[in-house]
From TrEMBL:
Keywords linked to the UniProt accession: Membrane, Transmembrane, Transmembrane helix
Protein's organism: Erythrocercus mccallii
GO CC annotation terms, alphabetical: membrane
InterPro entries cross-referenced by the UniProt entry: MAL (IPR013295), Marvel (IPR008253), MARVEL-CKLF_proteins (IPR050578)
Record-given protein name: MAL2 protein
GO-annotated biological processes: myelination
Domain of life: Eukaryota
Residue intervals passing through the bilayer: 36-56, 68-92, 104-123
Subcellular location: Membrane
Domain named MARVEL: residues: 32-156
Length: 156
């Protein structure tokens, strides 16, 4: 007979040794370019440069809207280069940060800012047909035909 409170079944095993917590780390050096995160950073730099050039090549008819687009493009481009450099030159191994979480937050914030910039650039593009009055006799469109095409490319 078993003592009171005892059971004939052994206690369940501790699952910690069998299921270790997942640990995903981002590589440093040129190996970062072979990861999904490295490819996304490279694309952010490439497309940020393209947006920067396209918006700068228009006449910037609405500085309030397109100023924010330029700010986002230049800032995200610069921060992407800094973030990629941290991994390329091995500083990620020297700085005690959860790089997986930092990578997720960086790409999430970049997405939010680029999406807002897209909306503002698309709003500028949609105002193409509205006339802008300089005085009572002179009217011209907000965007010329060439600037309209460039603005569409920057929006995309």
């Amino acid at each position: 007979m078993l003592p009171r409170g005892a059971s004939s079944m052994p206690p369940p095993p501790n699952p910690a040794p069998y299921f270790p917590p997942p640990r995903v780390t981002l590589p440093s050096g040129l190996e970062i370019l072979r990861t999904f995160s490295g490819a996304v950073i490279f694309l952010e730099i490439l497309f940020g440069t393209i947006v920067w050039i396209l918006v700068a090549s228009t006449g910037v008819p609405l500085p309030l809207l397109q100023g924010w687009v330029m700010f986002v493009a230049v800032t995200a481009w610069f921060l992407s280069i800094v973030f990629l450099s941290v991994f390329l030159f091995g500083y990620a191994n020297r700085i005690a940060v959860n790089w997986n979480q930092a990578d997720f937050i960086f790409h999430g914030a970049t997405f939010v800012f680029y999406f807002g910039a897209f909306l503002l650039q698309a709003a500028t593009t949609s105002l193409h047909h509205f006339p802008r009055k300089f005085n009572s006799t002179t009217q011209e469109r907000i965007l010329s035909g060439r600037e309209y095409n460039i603005s569409i490319a920057a929006s995309v």
